[in-house]
Amino acid sequence: xxxxxxxxxxxxxxxxxxxxxxxxxxxxxxxxxxxxxxxxxxxxxxxxxxxxxxxxxxxxxxxxxxxxxxxx
Length: 72
Fold this sequence. Notes:
This protein has helices at residues 15-21, 28-36, and strands at 2-8, 13-14, 40-42, 45-46, 53-54, 59-62, 65-71. It is of the alpha+beta class and 72 residues long. It has a five-stranded mixed sheet with strand order 1-7-6-3-4, with no helix packed on it. A two-stranded antiparallel sheet has the order 2-5. A hairpin with a 2-residue loop joins strand 6 (59-62) and strand 7 (65-71). Helix 1 packs across helix 2 (28-36).
């Protein structure tokens, strides 16, 4: 499984935008589609909210990629 470390600039990033910013999804729309398809987990739990607030310390998994969110 590939692991990506994402540096968080603010308090949080929306889930669909995180997928776009890390290159897991081609666009925000594709990120939303992945969430709707049930392909995304946050901290090991399925996540269905496209704009879920992802904060530092959380881990997101999608399509065999693990994204570790860290504070800047």
